[in-house]
Please model this.
Amino acid sequence: MELKGKNALITGGNRGIGRATAFALAERGVNVGITYFRGKKKAEEVIESARARGLKACAVQCDIKDFKQVEKMVSQVIDKLGGIDFLINNAGISGPSSRIDDISVEEWREVLDTNLSGSFYCCKALKGELVRRKGKIVNISSIAAKMGGTIGSHYAASKAGLLGLTFALTNELAPHVTVNAIAPGPVDTELISEEVKKKLSALTPFGRIARPEEIAHTVIYLLENDYVSGEVIDVNAGRYMD
Ligand SMILES: NC(=O)c1ccc[n+]([C@@H]2O[C@H](COP(=O)([O-])OP(=O)(O)OC[C@H]3O[C@@H](n4cnc5c(N)ncnc54)[C@H](OP(=O)(O)O)[C@@H]3O)[C@@H](O)[C@H]2O)c1
Model:
């Protein structure tokens, strides 16, 4: 699929992987709608940069844990861009705790509601639009979905749930919409501390963690391809080969 002239919604497009994805899409002539939760200033930088390329761009504040806010955000982005062809479910959090004894029920709910329910809400609110426009969904999961990771059981479970959501919607939305997931290993963003980044760099065969642009590049591949669906692409420099 030719990306130029299409419209994308990227949740959490103000920083990290979402920001790199918004830039990569804008470089290819895609109009971008992004959401942010608290980081308005960074969101404005992203949309100014897209507008400077002559593209349509908007940033909408939204707590993806709340379905009503998601529905409102989706209709605002459709109004501003004139429609949505691509949904990138990227917004996500890790909790403050990582061990089961320390993870409170509230923290468990917060992580599941954001990472899993938030993505489901966006898919639900956009399903009709994406079917009509023969669109695509890319869910940003994690290596933790497959090997547990170190962030915590709540995070791993939310990211594994996102794979289940990907597979179920692949069947349900075919042949109109392709649905895929990306499972990155550690990425150089604010989600993980500098100390953890150092530790994880040493564990990867390439001796470094991924750059956000390397995940964005995988998103581009999945949007350009019209026949890959129900796939999970690992982007981890061969972590499983250890
Ligand atoms: N970094 C990694 O090592 C890594 C590895 C594998 C997968 N991932 C996944 O990749 C995705 C992006 O992560 P990142 O590393 O780029 O993280 P990040 O830099 O911490 O960005 C997280 C994004 O999620 C948004 N967000 C958080 N809570 C939200 C809520 N309730 N409603 C709406 N938006 C919310 C944030 O918005 P504000 O800035 O406005 O708060 C921000 O844009 C996440 O799903 C993460 O789990 C990351």
